[in-house]
Amino acid sequence: MHGATNTVSPAGARRGTVVVTTVASDSHTWNLVFLQLLIEELGYEVINLGPCVPDQVLIDACRETAPDLVVISSVNGHGHQDGLRVIDALRACGELASTPVVIGGKLGVAGHQSDAAIGELMSAGFDAVFDDSSSTTREFSRFVGTLSPAARPLERTEVVA
Amino acid sequence: MRPGAHPLRRTAEGARPVDFGAFVRARSRAGDLVVQPRMGFSDPGTMRAGLAATSAADATTVGTITLDSYTRVGELASVDEALSTGAKLNGYPIVTYDRAVTGQVLAGIRDETFPVQVRHGSAVPGDIFAALRRTLINATEGGPVSYCLPYGRTPLDESVRNWVRCTEDFAQLRESGVEPHLETFGGCMLGQLCPPSQLVAISVLEALFFCQHGIRSVSLSYAQQTHPGQDREAVAALRRLCGELLPTPNWHVVIYAYMGVYPTTDEGAYRLLDEATRLAVTSGSERLIVKTVAESRRIPTVAENVAALEAAALTARAARPGGPAPAESDSQTYLEARALVEGVLELSPDIGHAFELAFRQGALDIPYCLHPDNHGRARSYIDGDGRLRWAGIGRLPLAGLVGPARTREATASGLIADLSYVQRAFDRPAMESGAFRDRGRADIAPPESGSS
Predict the structure, then answer these.
(1) Which domain of life is it from (chain B) (predicted)?
(2) Chain A residues inside the 8 Å CB shell of B370
């Protein structure tokens, strides 16, 4: 995480809030634990929804916390199918229509996502796709670094921890 | 080589499946390590072909039907959607298919020389157990803790209630003349970074839970971790605690080849599987669940699974059993595991309830487990010698056994270093010899902390 950790804000000041989640059928958690630590080191408050997150739980959490970014990580091979459903549901909520939402991990059972499969996710409304076989952690960190930090009072991020 | 063309017996008596536990123990007494894949396909024909290939492998095998993860969480509408659009599931949807379909998958393949186990990973397994009873599938695995805390959102008390009911219903298979077998998944908690003593303790406690609810044929899992010597000590502790505590003689131990971030090179993957196989043989374990060279990339094919089974069988034939560990030696792992087991059993005579109290109080505490019912204060790390150790014990009853906690802040890079310790150690020789194809990425997604 070279470089990226340099952007960590002074202790106490957070750049914003990121929701880390997976899809409803995915039971894996190490990816979520890792992403939480990584995104915290990038200066954000993280709300980690844990494994097997039903669509409605994710939507409710996003509506409640108005995050600066939603990170969906899935490694069980159902991420593509579930991701398409989840992004539809998120984008259908007016207040989440323009929230940055990214997806990554092992998204299909075949090992890598084709350009067409990634294109399908992008046109469904994802802002970025980090397919595990073709992208790196550093690319993800760079993406997070390009987000414009929301100008919001600090206490906003503290109540949701 | 297994006798290939076994005719399916048509009598009601002959069609009853054998006791999975008795089968494995008999093969072990004959000197064979039983090897088993993780394998599940949504298409019944492919599933049947996978079982047939497993049975025909040059190894002493048992079959596996791993269920898909929609079935695991009860999202049956998503199963229907995938089946109707032709999308592939990551396992066999046993609840959705008619019993006749599953009967056809098994017909002529499952017999007294080839028992089959269903693997799922569900904390709400009611529908799954009902499907097993309908098809007289008498071997499965899991547990109220190991299928709840690491992988889902189901509250622990609800998982315990579900598992009590399902275990008691499953035990009733005996009324049909069929012996039900349950394997604990507790020796695999989170796949990696759980210190071995707690893996041993939860495996033993889940077996006691199964026995308390009517099961007489059990197996206890232990997943290969980061240090061969520590693993041998852990399996010896597990076997000793089984002898001391289980109310049935019909138990055996199943070793899981490493479940964390897997080597990316074929050579590294095979060396890691070899080490798991030697652990199984030298510790006197009866069964091994293999991993393939494809683990770091995707769900393995049938051929990759068969190759792994045959490689493990070859290594097992060459390995020498270590003989039973001396019973009088109280290893560190044994002492910690016994303290953890006793710490739970003293909370309530009802083991399910004792589990709930233990996690609430921190008498059991899984490092890095995100479940809200986990205490969340225990931490672990890999020491310089490769052993998994406690970085902090929280409120685990290990105060007299484990030295003072190290202060060690969790960082993303530190976590990745520990999660990929085994991958690096086993890929290194292949990389140094130039055989490694640099895939140019950090593997942030452990392939298998999951449910299969």
Answers:
(1) Bacteria
(2) 29, 32-33, 48, 50-51
What pLDDT is stored for residue A9 in this prediction? 42
Domain boundary among B293, B318, B343: B318
Which structural domain range is residue B87 located in?
A: 21-318
B147 and B225 part of one domain: yes
Give the strand pairing for A128-131 and A101-105.
parallel
Tell which residue, B377, B67, B359, B323, has the closest CA to residue B205. B359
* Residue among B318, B317, B252 at smallest CA distance from B285: B252
Q: What is the DSSP letter of B176?
A: G
Helix (H) or strand (E) holding B225: none
> Any idea which of A5-19, B315-329, B356-370 has the lowest mean pLDDT?
A5-19
> Which of B:179-198 have CB within 8 Å of A?
190-192
C-alpha B102/C-alpha B95 separation (Å) is 10
Residue A99 is predicted with a pLDDT of 97
Residues B372 and B233 in one domain: no
In a domain, B218, yes or no: yes
Query: What is the length of chain B?
Result: 452
The reply to whether B9 falls in a domain is no
Q: What is the pLDDT of residue B328?
A: 57
Answer yes or no: do B451 and A33 touch at CB < 8 A.
Answer: no
Percentage helix, strand, coil, to 5, in chain B?
45, 10, 45
Residue B431 pLDDT > 90, yes or no?
A: no
What whole-number distance in Å separates Cα of residue B224 and Cα of residue B334? 16
Contact B73 A37 (CB under 8 A): no
Do the interacting molecules here have an ipTM over 0.90?
no
| B234 and B377 share one domain | no
Report the 10 Å Cβ neighbour count for B103: 14
Domain CATH number, residue B290: 3.20.20.240
Contact B150/A29, CB-based, under 8 Å? Answer: yes
The rounded distance, in Å, linking the Cα atoms of B174 and B54 is: 27
pLDDT at A134: 84
Q: A48: which chain B residues are within 8 Å (Cβ-Cβ)?
A: 370
State residue B127's pLDDT score. 97
**Residue B440 belongs to a domain:** no
Phi, psi angle pair for B232, to nearest 5°: -60, -40
Do B234 and B143 belong together in one domain?
Answer: yes
Q: Look at chain B and report how many structural domains it folds into.
A: 2
Based on the fold, state whether residues B396 and B272 are members of the same structural domain: no
Distance CA A82, CA A84 (A): 5
Q: Hey, is the C-beta of B444 within 8 angstroms of any chain A C-beta?
A: yes
If residue B437 lies in a helix (H) or strand (E), which one and from where to where? none
Residue B380 is assigned to a structural domain of this protein: yes
Contact in structure between B73 and A55 (CB atoms under 8 Å): no
Statement to judge: residues B35 and B75 lie in one domain: yes
pTM (two decimals): 0.86
Q: Provide the residue type at A93 as one letter.
A: C
Give the mean pLDDT of B224-246. 98
Q: Give 10-residue mean pLDDT values along chain A (161 residues).
A: 36 82 91 95 95 95 97 91 96 96 90 89 97 89 84 38 31
Domain match, B376 and B308 both: no
Residue B177: left if φ>0, alpha if ψ -120 to 50, beta else—which one?
left
Distance set, CA B113 to CA A28, B39, B60, B153 (Å): 34, 19, 9, 39
Residue B450: the pLDDT is 38
